[in-house]
Amino acid sequence: MDWWDLTVRFFSLADANVRWVVFGSILLGGAAGGLGCFAYLQKRSLMGDALAHAALPGVGLAFLVVGRKDFLALLLGASITGWLGALAINYIVRESKIKLDAALGIVLTVFFGLGIVILTYIQKSGSGSQSGLDKFLFGQAAAMGRNDVVILGIVALTMLAVVALGFSKFKLISFDPGFGRSLGMQVGLLQFVLTTMIVFAVTIGLQAVGVVLMAAMLITPAAAARQWTDKLQRMVMLASLFGILSGLFGAYISFLAPRFPTGPWMVIVVTAVFVLSVLFAPQRGVISFIRQHYANRRRMTREHVLKVLFKAGQDSRQWKTYYPVDQIKRMWSFTQHELNAALAGLQKQGMMEKSGGMYRLSDDGITEGARVTRLHRLWEVYLSRYLELPEDHVHRDAEDMEHIITPEMEARLEELLEHPEYDPHRQEIPYIGKRSQA
User: Which of 1-15, 79-93, 281-295, 352-366 is predicted with the least confidence, judged by mean pLDDT?
Assistant: First the structure.
C-alpha cells in the first residue's frame, strides 16, 4: 500500500483507532490553542509547563487509588495536583518576594520530581496493570479509545463554551485587571475560572502529548496567532485553528509512519506553523519587516532626490531645469543603484520627467519636493526653538524626522511654530502646494 492509499484511508477515517486518535488530537489542539491565548497575554506562558509537570504525581496517585488505568480517574488526579500546583505558584508569588518565573521553576521541579518518584514506585510494585503508565511523560495518542475521546471532547467543548460566554470579561482581566476591579468585576473569581480551565486543558492533553510537550500545545498556537492579528477574538480563533491543524496533521504523519508517536509530531507541526507565522505574517513577519524596511529606504531616497532638485531651483524659482544623472548624484550621497531606482520610481509616479539621459521635476514633483523641504526646515525650527539645539546640530536630526511625519502631525507642527518663513539657517521654508490648497 503506497502513501496515497494510506492518505485516502486516513482521511476517510475507515479505521476506528484512527478516528479516535484524530478526533482526540483535534479536540485537544483546538481547546489548548484557544485557552493558551489568555496565558500568553498575561505573560504566564510557562504556567502551562509548570502545571503539566505538576499533574504527573496526580496520575500516579490516581492509579494507586483505583488500581488500574482508568482515564477519568487519571484525569481527575492530574487535575487535582495540577490545581494544587497553580495554588502553590500563586501563594509563593503573593506571600513572598519570589518572582513568578522562580515560582514556576520551583513548582515544576518539585512536583515533577514527586511524580517520577511515584511512577518509579508503581513500576517496581510488580503490578501488571501499570504497563504504559510512563507514556504520560511523552504521550501516546494511539492509546486513546472511544471513552477517552468522549471525556476529552466533553471537557474541551465545555471549556470553549465557557470562554465564549465570558469572553469579554476574560479579555478585560487579561489586559487591565485593575480597570475590571474598578467596574466591580470579581477579578479573582474570573482568574480562578481561567486558571482552572488551563489546568483542565493541560490534563486532557497528557495522554496525547505528555507532560514534557504539553506546554508547546498551550502556548505555541497562541504565539503563532499573535503574529497575524491585533484582535483577541481573531487571535483565539486562529490559535484554535492552528491547534486543530497540528492535531490533524500530527495524527496524519504518525499514521503514515506508525513508529513515530502523534504527540511529538503535533508539536513539530504547530512549531512549523509558528515559524511560518514569524516569517510571513503580513504585519509582524520577518519577511514583511524586511520588505517594509527596504520600501522605506526606497521612499526616503526618492524624497531626497525630490528635495535636492527642489532646493537646486529654489533661489531662482526655476524648477523645470533638466539635470544629468551624474550631477544629481553629486547633490547627495546617492549610490548609483539607489539613484537609478529612485529616478525610475519617481518617473513612474509622475513626479519626474525624462529627456534623453536627463531628468527634471514635474509639477507634482515640485509640490512634493516643496513638502519634503518644508518638513525638513520646520523640524530644524522645532529642534532649535524648543530643544535649544545649536544651529549646526539640527540638520542631521531633521534629515531623519522629515520622513516619518503624517499630514496631521505636519499641520500640528506648523500651527505650533506659527507658520515660520525661515529656518535657523535663514533659508526660506517653501509652502508651494500648501497655501494654494488653503
Answer: 1-15
Give Dmax over CA atoms of the chain in angstroms: 100
Residue type, 270: V
Decide: 158 and 232 in contact? Cβ < 8 Å: no
pLDDT in tens, 25-63: 888 888 888 888 988 888 877 787 888 888 888 888 888
Residue 263 sits in the same domain as residue 352: no
**Which of 266, 282, 298 represents a domain boundary (last residue)?**
282
Which residue stretches of 42-166 are H helix?
47-66, 71-95, 100-124, 146-165
Give 3-state DSSP helix, strand, coil % of the chain, rounded to 5.
Answer: 75, 5, 25
CA 374-375-378 angle, 5° bins: 85
Task: Please list, in sequence order, all residues whose beta carbon lies within 8 angstroms of the beta carbon of residue 122, skipping any fewer than 6 positions away.
Answer: 60, 63, 64, 130, 133
Note whether 103 and 202 are same-domain residues.
yes
Q: How many domains is the chain partitioned into structurally?
A: 2
Cβ-count burial of 97 within 10 angstroms (0-12 exposed, 13-18 middle, 19+ buried)?
Answer: exposed
Domain containing 411 — which CATH number?
Answer: 1.10.10.10
Domain end marker among 245, 266, 282: 282
For residues 76 and 17, membership in a common domain is answered with: yes
